[in-house]
Design goal:
Rossmann fold; 6-stranded parallel β-sheet; two-stranded antiparallel sheet; 11 helices; alpha/beta
Length: 229
């Protein structure tokens, strides 16, 4: 399984700053988003701050913003290649379903974990609990791995922000893609470049190593007892 973050990974933009530019509060939402992604502000606190800014905005207006956000270069091809390699792509994001579901539908991704707005009379008022925090992202990766019948050591996580670190560390391979410094320091692989396809050689090598280890015959008890201590 390969779990992708959404904004900054599959999508070459951040949702809240784009909404802020539409509302005239771009500087505030951009600053809070940047602090959260750099690990300078707790994710949940940052999320609630940004929600207070957009409270009352029509959901359909936010959907229009989502439709204009560009995909990362090579994202579509990367997901297609993973499926051809018999990997299971997933989206696990602290962002919102209105963007995650759009990308999942375009890419044919079945497994999606995202936050969801509470909407009243067509306008955003809050976020549904539980919030998809960094720790929640890691737990969801572990849960999905179990559902697919594999251990976390068979999983890859790709992300760019501080909230991706627990998910990346829970996986067998953590890839930082155009990531913040705090993420690069904790990742197994660091990709600096604008094309998501650059993750593919590392995923292929990882998959082959996992398959090799899983296919290696386990030594018998007699053999283990005969090995020198």
């Amino acid at each position: 399984m390969v779990a992708f973050d959404l904004e900054g990974t599959l999508v070459d933009a951040e949702f809240f700053p784009e909404v802020g530019r539409r509302l005239g509060d771009g500087a505030l939402l951009d600053s809070v988003t940047r602090q959260a992604m750099n690990g300078e502000l707790r994710f949940e606190e940052a999320l609630l701050r940004r929600l207070r800014v957009i409270r009352g905005v029509p959901l359909e207006e936010l959907r229009e913003v989502c439709l204009r956000l560009p995909l990362s270069r090579g994202a579509r091809e990367t997901v297609r290649a993973l499926r051809e390699l018999h990997c299971t792509p997933a989206i696990i994001t602290g962002g919102f379903d209105i963007l995650a579901d759009r990308v999942a539908a375009e890419f044919g991704v079945e497994y999606v974990c995202a936050n969801r707005f509470i909407v009243e009379h067509g306008r955003v008022v809050s976020v549904r609990r539980p919030i998809v925090t960094p720790e929640f992202k890691a737990r969801r990766l572990l849960m999905l791995a179990r559902r697919l019948g594999m251990g976390p050591g068979c999983c890859v996580a790709v992300g760019d922000g501080a909230n991706d670190i627990p998910m990346m560390e829970a996986a067998g391979l953590g890839i930082a893609f155009n990531a913040k410094r705090c993420v690069r320091e904790r990742a197994d692989v660091v990709i600096e470049g604008g094309d998501l396809r650059e993750v593919l050689p590392y995923i292929i090598d990882f998959k082959e190593e996992v398959e090799r280890l899983n296919s290696s015959p386990r030594p018998s008890v007699a053999r283990l007892r005969s090995l020198p201590v």
